Amino acid sequence: MGCPSCCNHCRDAGPEPKSTSATDPYQLENLLKAGTLSLQLARESQPDVYCEHHHESDGWHPFFGAAPFLPLTSLNDVDLCKQLEFLSKHRFLAATYHVGEGGKLKFRIYLIHHDLTGAKGALRVRSGNVIAPARRYLRAVLSRIDKSLEGWRGQECIEAEPFVVDSKDPRTLAEIYSDLASPRVAIVPGLGDISKRLLDYEDDLAGLGLRSKLYRYQRRSVAAMLHRELDQQDVADPLFIPVTTVDNKEFFFQPGTMEVLLERPMVAPCRGGILCEELGTGKTVMIISLILATLRQLPKPEVSLIDDRPVLTPLSFRHFPSLDCMTARERFSYKGKERECRVPSLVELLLERSRMSPDENVPDLRTPEGRRRMGKLEGIEDSFESLPLATLRKATVPFYYHYLGEPSNLDRDRRQRSATAPKKMYLSSATLVVVPPNLMSQWDREIIKHAEYPLRVLILRDKSDMPSVASLASDYDLVLMTYARFTQESKGNASRLHSMKTCKCSEIPGTSVPDCSCQVADVSPLLQIRWKRLVIDEGHVSASLSSLLNPCTKALSIERRWIVTGTPTTNLLGLALGQRTVDETAEDVAMAEEGVGHDTFLGELNTSNALPTSASMESPASSSPSSLRSTPSPAVDKPTNSRIWDHDDRGDLRKLGNMITHFIAVPQFAADGKLVSSHVTDPLLDPKGPRPGSIQILNQVMQMVMIRHRIEEIEDDVVLPPLTHESILLDLDAFAIKSYNALQASIAVNAIDSERRDKDYLFHPANADLLQVTVKNMSQIMFWSTDEQLYFTEQMHKDAATHMKRAIERQRPPEDIALLNDALRHIANAVNDTVWRYIHQHEDVPYRVYHIPQKVYDAWTRIPGNRDPTDPTFAGFLSADRLLKLHDLVLEKPLITADGMVTRGRQVSRVDAELRQIYLKSEKKKSKRRGGGSSSSGTAQFQSEVVTAHSQIVSSSVKKSSAKETMDEVKADLKDSMATLAAREEQEEDDQAVGAEKLVGGPKAGKTSSSSGSPLKPSAKMSVLAHNSPLAKVRMGASASNKLNYIINEVLQYSKTEKFLIFTDSELTLAHIAEALELIHVKHLRFSAQIPPRNREQLVLTFETSETYRVFLMELKHGARGLNLVSASRVIFCEPVWQADVESQAIKRAHRIGQTKPITVKTLAIRGTAEENMVARRHALQNSHDKLPKLIEEAGMRHFISNPKFIEAPPALVNIDIPLLDLPPMDLSHSVTMKLKRPREASVPKKRILLMDPLSGQEGNPAIPSVTMESPPKRQRAIRFADQVPMGVDDAEPVRGPVPQPSPKRRKGIRFLDPVPMSGQEPEPPAHLNLSPSKRPRKIRFIN
Q1: Over the stretch 292-328, which tens digit does the pLDDT of each residue have?
Q2: Cross-sheet strand order for the sheet of 104-111
Q3: How far apart are CA 1080 and CA 879, in angstroms?
Q4: 3-state per-residue secondary structure call for 585-600
Q5: Do 747 and 755 contact (CB within 8 A), yes or no?
Q6: 406, 716, 795, 1280: which is deepest, by most CB within 10 A?
Q7: CB neighbours (10 Å) of residue 1125?
């Protein structure tokens, strides 16, 4: 049958054969059969028009242009034909065509691969005017290709096969990250076969120097890191994916540049990467294991194509006759008597050998030979240290001369630079570890905990002294430093290192070894060392080009670079560990009706403005959002179309690219900084969705640099203790309700007055910042907040008629009129409440107080006139700071009278008022300097709330937390705790059997069980004399913050056996909780941005080791990353956290490897407010594949906030009942009352009674004055014996007015002896009473 595409002439005579050269590289046989394209002609077949009069080797006509086939039935087909013409002309592809029945036009597409043999590189050199359109046309052509064999044969195809399979992958970047395959580890020879031993799970790794036992996944991760560091064979280019032709021939394709290659390129490997195992999986111990496995290994000099860079020592450079040494001396024109070449002695050769080729092998102590060799080496090293040779060996530091080599692509413009002198670079086997300041002590502690052999660790803090370069290179195995110190050290003038001067230092007497002490001024020793390894902990900070870490890293010479982080970018999170153990109970427990005052939310929330949710809901944190899952969701839950990647994905990809290109410096990407963008990012961010193959490219790049295990493999090795997460719904206190309703009323008035339009409306886009502050103010009210301007309720109350008249005139809808009526009613309720107005004059939380003398209360309160006629014991409200001062007053003076308290209360009030005025004036000046932002009149009240926000309590709390006295107490407790732990560790080591194994992250040495914690150490002990104080019976009831009441109850109930982490976004909330903890005498620590970094480090270490401190108050944004706080087992969030990843990271501080107790997490939320809606909305959105929007941008939350709802129901409060004074117990079982007759006297004598505080331990305590008392006639005297507790002293009426001070003159009186032993010691009884209790005579002692 003839060709239907041939004209009549060709059919009769036959087509002419195409004349081609046998050496033509572009013959179809040399090209790749990509597939076919099918088009429809717009007219009947006209072979005379498009016949080319000859056939190609495949039997079809060659395609040279689109013109003969026009017109077509579709404009898209016309464009496609023109694109084929362009691509064929510029040799991107070749095409042949065939016209079938009905005008069916088919093309066979042959791709011309860039590495085509015989092309002589012409395919790689094309102008930009050709490359840019060619890439667009190739994307259009390849997307329509059918790769089926039927189509290639010209037959009708039932189901087309795409050129590159487009899986329509809907996964987010976080899900792709979670689905990365676990490392496939290849055994690397060397280092005593430690790589093989790591993968042998029966091997206990004896000889590695690791005290702890690694889990299996940790072994694989360490082996994978060793493989990355030691295997220097080229690897397959991750930027290409394999594709097959019609005849199943494999080639390689790049979706970004549309480059086609027959052979996959090989690239240099990356000697480092990102260790990004899940949070809490022991990444620190993995790094320590890596350091131990390569402990003695020296790095190699930087590779240069034009310079050999041999390794030398000061000894060999001066005297050795080897070719390398002679060449080095000649390049320096080195002259002098030291140049005399001679044969080195055996000792010199051994010194050289021991420093340049140390024994790198890890001994295998399982075998007799390994144990014998290890013992022999230890013996030699021990004896060697005592010999003079040790000094010579220390001075023999290996180095090389770094001449400027071939410049990189970025440096070619500086090829003609004048600096030709080399710089001297010392080789160091040490690892440089850079950590956040608050993790310094944690790293130090982990090293001691896990390393069996004592590593030589240098800790460089911000002001630590830097050793000399020779010492730094030779004397340490690990150099630990903070971010700030690391960036500070790289600021020297590195060009000063390039010098032609050689060392002229004298030799060590009696030897030929130079005693070099050369230093380059103004240049850090860090820049003069070729480091083996750099580790950046919490290294996601290197993702920002604005960070100083990247330029500092580039300034250093480093062989291997590692980033250690559980969260490589904002949305790449490792938070799934422990999900198996999360309690997913779906039970609704309503406890408010029982009088408890809160609901435990484990089920559906009743919120009218929330989107519909399922009838049975889990706890919001009980199942992580899709972005945190370790496995993709079932296909039925996923959309059928590709997900469009957005600007958030671009940000994550940019950060990932920065780490790969600038920090880890993968050779392929470091050579071309735009490679990530052009080959990875752009194909993913195509407006129509990721291009086929682009997600596979991303996956290959991530697999190349990242080491992480899938969560299911980790959980096969380790199961964390169970975690229960509850959302606790509470009611607001009646006074907090008025504040909340007042703010809601102001939002309602603003909405109605502005008619919800223009810039006067709070929710206008121009007021985004103001809206954010308003939402924060609302959140603060739901814990506790005050406003001296009363949320502008007075002005709104004054203008109430105007607001209503304006709304009626504007014909606002009935629902707006009803909302305005409610708003004005609540404003009136607040304005007319005198107590509420008094409360807002100070920011402290007021507490209900009972059984306090009325005159004392009146002198100390800021809130007068609020007694309850139904409860005569209720006195009113006292602020937390006043309660603390009253407590301290009784602690200092246990016998102070009620009148004395009144006097002191008036003084305190006066001083507080003066300090308050000073503080407000200071804040006003600061506000003027900052300048207030402009705002419209409609939002003026919200702007004013920001300007006048006070934080006196925050300032005071922060100063107290970081005060010298506080830190001295913390350090002293830390010292005691560390000593106790060290003693317990020694005892445990003595008790342990030989060969006992320890699990990584197991119970900390010295940690007591939950039931055996040591008793708390109060800061001061109340005297027994305080039993007679007017405040002895005072009780504190519920505060005006219901959340605070709940926290107090939780801490009182559980703090004796468990430790707490309390998170909040608000510094003011932290200050309120700190005051409450002081009131209930629970020791706590505070971690926030205002605490200096050095102090934060001490606080973390103290909390982990001390049994004294039971609560750690943490600012959410600063305390949710990096810290290991497994001593805590209870976590409280003071408000719901909108971002699930932030919440999960905070929980991971405690729920991680090393935790042995069940974890209880409670999130506090206020019923009927935006907080309850937030919990419901976040739960409803947790299965979404899109990133969770910002709180005020999420539709459901914005709708709830913009439609204010008032709280009308009476609150159910969480009750507390605690004493103000922590009184010691009294034993009155041995009390004896005696009646003594007093002889008649003419005048009433005066006697002085010296009252001693039995707990002071001092006889002349000036804090307790003597009291002159008149003996009433016929008064019976109650006498106590010396070995008994003294009776009450309020039988005698003290003299009013100033109390006279005791005179040094001796007077008669009764001396009360201390019957209660001092804390920590047994009192010595007087010599005449040093008898056993049963035989001790009872005497009456008078002081004469």
Answers
A1: 999 999 999 998 877 888 999 988 888 888 888 888 8
A2: 32-40, 104-111, 93-99, 61-62
A3: 14
A4: CCCCEECHHHCCCEEE
A5: no
A6: 1280
A7: 24
